[in-house]
Write a structure and sequence with these properties.
About 30% of the residues lie in helices and about 30% in strands. It is of the alpha+beta class. This is Amidohydrolase family protein.
Length: about 675
């Protein structure tokens, strides 16, 4: 009874309170660093918003103006500014007797009639839409309502606690706001129903004066709540069959021969492959059988540029990616994720870790270890080496003069070195310093077009790519770099798909990498996939960007021709985007079989993991996936995955996708359990 009385009192408070306080300010923190603000200024029924976040030299800069009705719902809303990567925003929403209409970067839309949704989820606005919607849901009988442009938002209470600050102790409640995207948002409201904080595992936006007190507790809470959700998905979706599993009637992709086998049966016992035998083999008692129906079994793939979180971990496994090289993370967060994957609590790939080292500057990335001297950078290398990291990754703000000694120490300790080209240096200098691998094709090519003193710690490292079309690949400066890479056996991880997205994606149409899967996604996700990444203020600038991407592919094709090892990784979270990365590799002079071999066995060899991974052979770990088509003829076949085995734990991706609101890509697999 007491809880019901408290709930009624809280609801009465919400209904009686004004929609928002007159002025509120919130501070944004990443790894305890203040990276920006959200400021709300209400005058009567109008609200002005100033939202500015900057981390690693980039972030959204947004201004909003709203007019509210008497109940606090928006009737007019304008949103202008720039997205994280500089795309211009001019978004609007209005609602009247005839209905609701809006315009964002994906295009215009409207819902006619007096019953059109009263609340709007912005595409590129500040978190104010979440704050207003959460408050409105508190006053709704079932805490559920339709939202424009689409979807039904739901609010579920998850936690209560209090924080001390300049206005005294505040009692706050954290809610799960779901129904608007693949993953819920965790929003914390005060007793009036106003926004107190918005938190995730690595970020918090909290009421000014309370941000330090709320930072770790609410981030930990968000991580805990998200973990519970992914643990539930794992519990419902991961199949661990008793006894051996025999997958019948499949052709196996052999990455050594770069061809498919004859029809075969593959047997898994525990975590490993116990047999690869001709089709029609005799099963033993107690086996589960899976009918492959003449499809193809492909070794688990390697995504070589991840920054793993729980969602990415799940989506990669479902996409046939059973191994990921993490290229920089919050070390303690990744520790926890690896531990939970290892225990089977959540789904995820095998993770190979890179030790992220960044120099301290106003543009520093809040990842890994920040260092202020060469000695600190060398200490960071030793710290990572002692904990078994595969390589060190050096980043933009590190002083390039430190590189030779930092690299030498990494090599002495048995670690490789990869990374960005630090600002005010070039790929040539990092190759001379001993880099084993250059990360991102723009980082490689910028040294051919930059002028002395130009700073690549900002968005300039993206916009300067507009200079690429004029490059002569036979010029001395280009051939010098490529010759050095060949001579020193320096590899390159180009992340082609993210450059395609940044340079060629247009507002209002699906981005090139999403064309094959966008129709399967929920409406809110489709909306996000129909906008440019890098802003282009004129048609000429966009034309220059598109020409730059053509030059990038021409450069990579020349590198492949020269025998430089190109490594497939996305820096986009992997999953569906990794499939696009492989398609783009296929435009560099590689056959589909070449690409699949590169994504499987060759990457296992690159990471010295080929004794256990990379091919489907007796004794190796049971990492593979089943598709109905022939990927050696058409690489798009890998996009219709029916089953994934990650160390003998089996997933049927479409079962999980349905729980996330994603439409299936294939048909169910026939599984026969052993008879008692």
């Amino acid at each position: 009874m007491k809880l019901h009385l408290l709930a009624a009192a809280a609801l009465a408070t919400v209904l009686a309170a004004p929609a928002l306080a007159d002025q509120l300010e919130y501070r944004a923190l990443i790894q305890e660093r203040d990276v920006g603000h959200l400021k709300l200024d209400r005058q009567g029924q109008k609200i002005a918003v100033d939202y500015n976040i900057k981390q690693n030299g980039r972030g959204p800069t947004i201004t909003e103006a709203l007019t509210l009705d008497k109940d606090g719902a928006p009737v007019a809303w304008s949103i202008t500014g720039r997205t994280t990567f500089g795309n211009a925003v001019n978004e609007s929403f209005k609602r009247g007797a005839a209905g609701a209409e809006w315009r964002d970067l994906s295009g215009p839309g409207k819902i006619k009639g007096k019953d059109a949704p009263r609340y709007y989820a912005t595409q590129n606005g500040s978190p104010l839409d979440v704050a207003m919607l959460a408050k409105a849901l508190l006053a709704d009988a079932d805490r559920s309502m339709a939202v424009a442009p689409g979807g039904t938002a739901r609010l579920t209470e998850r936690d209560r606690r209090s924080f001390d600050g300049p206005d005294g102790k505040l009692e706050v409640v954290t809610y799960e706001l779901s129904g608007l995207s693949l993953n819920p948002t965790y929003v914390t409201l005060d007793a009036k129903g106003d926004l107190f904080a918005l938190a995730s595992a690595g970020f918090i936006l909290a009421r000014k004066g309370y941000e330090r007190a709320a930072d770790k507790p609410l981030r930990d809470l968000a991580e805990q709540l998200a973990s519970g959700r992914f643990a539930q998905l794992q519990s419902e979706s991961a199949k661990k069959f008793a006894g051996p599993v025999r997958i019948r009637n499949v052709r196996i992709f052999d990455p050594k021969a770069k061809a498919l086998s004859a029809l075969s049966d593959v047997v898994v016992s525990g975590t490993r492959i116990s047999g690869v035998v001709p089709a029609g083999s005799i099963a033993t008692p107690g086996e589960t059988t899976v009918d492959g129906e003449g499809g193809t079994l492909v070794p688990g793939m390697f995504e070589m540029h991840g920054h793993m979180g729980q969602e990415d971990a799940l989506m990669n496994v479902l996409a046939g990616i059973t191994s990921v090289r993490d290229m920089g993370n919050r070390n303690e967060v990744l520790d926890t994720l690896i531990d939970r994957i290892g225990k089977g609590e959540v789904a995820g790939p095998r993770i190979t870790r890179s030790g992220f080292i960044e120099g301290k500057s106003p543009f520093s990335s809040a990842t890994g270890k920040l260092v202020a001297s060469e000695a600190e950078a060398i200490d960071a290398v030793r710290w990572y080496a002692a904990r078994g990291y595969n390589q060190a990754k050096l980043y933009n703000s590190m002083d390039p003069k430190w590189a030779p000694n930092v690299v030498a120490e990494a090599h002495r300790l048995g670690m490789r070195v990869a990374g960005h080209v630090p600002a005010f240096s070039s790929a040539d200098e990092m190759i001379a310093a001993g880099f084993d691998e250059i990360t991102h094709v723009n980082q490689l090519m910028l040294g051919w077009v930059l002028n002395p003193g130009e700073d690549t710690r900002t968005l300039f490292r993206f916009t300067a790519q507009a200079r690429f079309p004029g490059l002569d690949l036979k010029s001395d400066k280009v051939t010098k770099t490529l010759d050095a890479m060949v001579a020193k056996k320096v590899s390159h991880e180009p992340t082609i798909a993210i450059h395609e997205l940044g340079l060629t994606a247009l507002d209002g149409v699906p981005n090139p990498g999403a064309v094959d899967y966008i129709d399967h996604m929920p409406p809110a996700e489709q909306r996000q996939l129909k906008q440019a990444l890098f802003g282009a203020d004129t048609p000429k600038q966009r034309a220059d960007y598109i020409a730059a991407f053509a030059k990038i592919k021409e450069t990579l094709a020349e590198m492949h021709r020269r025998g430089i090892m190109l490594i497939p990784g996305t820096d986009l979270g992997g999953g569906f985007t990794y499939h696009r990365e492989l398609e783009l590799f296929g435009q560099l002079g590689m056959t589909p079989a070449d690409v699949l071999s590169r994504a499987t066995l060759e990457m296992a060899q690159y990471l010295h993991q080929d004794q256990a991974l990379g091919s489907i052979e007796r004794g190796k770990l049971a990492d593979f996936f089943l598709i109905p088509g022939d990927p050696t003829k058409d690489l798009k076949a890998i996009k219709t995955i029916r089953m994934v085995s990650r160390g003998g734990t089996v997933y049927f991706p479409d079962e999980v996708y349905l729980k996330l609101g994603i439409k299936p890509f294939s048909t169910p697999v026939k599984v026969s359990l052993p008879q008692n």
